[in-house]
Design a protein that fits this description.
41% helix; 181 residues
Length: 181
């Protein structure tokens, strides 16, 4: 099953959900709702340092589990690079970036969350770079499938031809002709 649709950019530009999510909208951290606010703040920051974060677009109710890019080896372990999680860009906020495929389209989430309120703004944009990569993967998969289908059909034809040749060897005159001939 393909991860992407054939014309990602067109789907991103015309799909109603993508049109809504491509505008800056209010977002909110959605993890650990059953916990107290202070514990949620700590858990949010911990999740960010672990390279993931659950957010929701309030206006559309769309929930996303963001993976915050490649992990960098630090003294304390693996953490997302500053490109994907930046606590220093703006005091009291963390800026987030995540690249992923959503509904068959390569997108980038960009946004920030206030470290105390656990809300902020975010939006999706079309990810042209990863769309080209995914497109190449899709084309390669289709080409491989075509080659496998052709190989299968050739094998089936060879088997059929071999069986036809074998049948002609075993064909003989009817028994009554051999006996009474």
């Amino acid at each position: 099953m393909a991860r992407i649709v054939p014309d990602q950019k067109n789907k991103f530009e015309t799909d109603e959900l993508f049109r809504k999510l491509s505008k800056k909208s209010e977002i909110r951290y959605t993890g650990y709702r059953n916990r107290g606010h202070e514990e949620r703040v700590v858990r949010f920051q911990t999740e960010c340092f672990e390279g993931r974060c659950s957010v929701a677009f309030i206006s559309s109710g769309t929930n996303l589990l963001l993976f915050l890019g490649p992990q960098l080896k630090e003294k304390k372990g693996m953490i997302p690079s500053k490109e994907f999680m930046d606590f220093d860009k703006e005091l009291g906020k963390v800026h987030l970036k995540s690249c992923f495929v959503m509904n068959g389209v390569s997108v980038i989430f960009r946004g920030y969350i206030d470290l105390q309120k656990l809300d902020g703004t975010g939006y999706l944009e079309y990810d042209d770079y990863n769309a080209k990569i995914e497109d190449t993967i899709l084309r390669d998969a289709v080409n491989q499938s075509i080659i496998r289908q052709q190989n299968f059909e050739e094998r089936q034809l060879r088997i059929k031809q071999e069986l036809m040749g074998t049948e002609s060897i075993f064909q003989c005159t009817p028994c009554h002709e051999a006996v009474f001939g």
